Description:
The chain is α/β, with parallel strands linked by helices. It has eight helices and six strands, in the order βααβαβαβααββαα. It has helices at 23-28, 34-54, 74-97, 113-126, 142-158, 169-173, 221-232, 242-254; strands spanning 15-19, 59-66, 100-105, 132-140, 186-189, 208-211. It has a six-stranded parallel beta sheet with strand order 3-4-2-1-5-6, with helices on both faces. β3 (100-105), α4 (113-126) and β4 form a beta-alpha-beta unit. One 3-methylbut-3-enyl trihydrogen diphosphate (IPE) is lined by residues 20-25, 65, 69, 80, 191.
Amino acid sequence: MTISSTTMDQALPRHVGIIMDGNGRWAERQGKPRVWGHKKGVDAVRRAVSFCRRLNIPSLTLFAFSSENWRRPEDEVSSLMELFMFVLQKEIKLLHKNQVRLKIIGDLSRFSTKLQIKIAEAESLTAGNTGLTLNVAANYGGRWDIAQAAQQLARQVAAGTLQADDIDEKLLASHIQMHDQPELDLMIRTGGDIRISNFLLWQAAYAELLFIDTLWPDFDDQVFADAIASFVSRERRFGCTGAQIRELAAATVQG
Ligand code: IPE
Ligand code: IPE
Ligand code: MG
């Protein structure tokens, strides 16, 4: 793994989100069933988690199953659910040992009770870990996320504890998933498609976007390192001019 020091113009991302796409095509290219690609994708998840631990990246969010993925053939959906359950059971001890805090984000009410219980157990086991927060987005949709935040605020208004006029961006943001974690800095999509597919819509407002052709099962340390190198070489302006940003950076270096 090499990240050239000449590209280290800015700090490493503190929160990386990944749309792990391309499992099905990866398998189909080898004449195997799509589920084979999902299974191989788990190895890539393990690598990505370990990479973030080594680089001390505080938050990693992985898109595992979108609110639209229920539209897939029934056997693929049930294979994915089984795999999710299996991986959760198999990996949780190792994640815990490695100081990983696991969070599942999404509308969990559609999952089986058995899976919901496993999720709650895994989250509570790892709740105190401080090494890396691994958010797995399952039955997640960016629109759902914004809608559930709006619903929480609407309830407060209905209960008389909040005035509608007091609702602003900051308040809404504090009800969006992962509001207690660093802002999303980098969003990567593997698999060659250039779209967000209802992933982190609110959180992506100022994230750097990176679309790469690598299919998810082939995502390894070198590909991740290249993605990080691309991130650190970019100038993030947040509405300012480039000159303002460079001035600010110079002042920070001088202390
Ligand atoms: C991403 O890979 C994993 C899930 C959506 C669960 P895909 O299954 O979408 O793979 P492709 O895009 O069909 O190759
Ligand atoms: C996005 O991939 C969802 C996940 C990676 C979990 P999809 O493969 O479902 O996205 P579309 O359907 O091509 O937009
Ligand atoms: Mg896909």
